[in-house]
């Protein structure tokens, strides 16, 4: 069965499908405007629903943002973290995860704005807790891979693991911010390999300086 909203033909969706459609619409809209200015009216316009229908699926805006944050967390797990598991060598796993993350953001530019927006909100609402936990899990995964690399001897044993994890996430965040400033989010995928090569230089063993 199909329905029409705003002149657009839309096929019937069950509750789970409709919720997914709404969540993905929010992610898309966050790529076009500041998430803090995103209204339920704009969301319903995007998906072709009444506000009453929207709140039938999500009782409050807070519930909607919680579902959006959970979707982002799940997508990072499926599209980014899982990529690392395809590689035995830790350095290759780190590179694959770095590039997969950049690719994911290039295709979903609203996600960095959404996550940063949640972290800046006062209080400790469910969406904010999910974003914090996601970033904490990400940091721990990077640390685990670095430690594995040390054991595999493809990463120097003298590396500062904690600092390396901070730098890894910071490189991604810096790339995204620069792309947003330049208004060219699509350039991320071309720049990312060069940035990772610079980052990976910290993995290399530094030979002893020649004795005088």
From TrEMBL:
Lineage: Bacteria, Pseudomonadati, Pseudomonadota, Gammaproteobacteria, Pseudomonadales
Annotated protein name in UniProt: Transcriptional regulator, TetR family
Annotated region of DNA binding: 39-58
Pfam hit, one: TetR_N
SUPFAM superfamilies in the cross-refs: Homeodomain-like, Tetracyclin repressor-like, C-terminal domain
Alphabetic keyword roster: DNA-binding, Transcription, Transcription regulation
HTH tetR-type domain boundaries: 16-76
Leader sequence segment: none
TM ranges: none
GO molecular function: DNA-binding transcription factor activity; transcription cis-regulatory region binding
């Amino acid at each position: 069965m199909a329905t029409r909203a705003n002149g657009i033909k839309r096929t019937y969706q069950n509750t789970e499908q409709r919720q997914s459609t709404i969540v993905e619409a929010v992610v898309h809209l966050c790529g076009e405007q500041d998430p803090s200015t995103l209204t339920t009216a704009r969301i319903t316009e995007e998906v072709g629903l009444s506000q009453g229908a929207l709140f039938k699926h999500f009782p409050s805006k807070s519930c909607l943002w919680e579902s959006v944050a959970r979707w982002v967390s799940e997508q990072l797990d499926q599209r980014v973290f899982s990529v690392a598991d395809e590689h035995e060598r830790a350095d290759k796993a780190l590179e694959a995860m770095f590039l997969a993350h950049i690719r994911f953001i290039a295709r979903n530019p609203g996600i960095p704005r959404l996550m940063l927006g949640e972290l800046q909100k006062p209080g400790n609402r469910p969406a904010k807790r999910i974003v914090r936990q996601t970033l904490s899990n990400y940091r721990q995964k990077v640390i685990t891979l670095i430690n594995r690399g040390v054991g595999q001897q493809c990463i120097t044993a003298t590396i500062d693991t904690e600092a390396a994890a901070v730098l890894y996430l910071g490189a991604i965040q810096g790339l995204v911010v620069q792309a947003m400033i330049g208004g060219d989010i699509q350039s991320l995928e071309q720049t990312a390999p060069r940035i990772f090569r610079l980052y990976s230089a910290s993995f290399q063993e530094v030979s002893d300086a020649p004795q005088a």
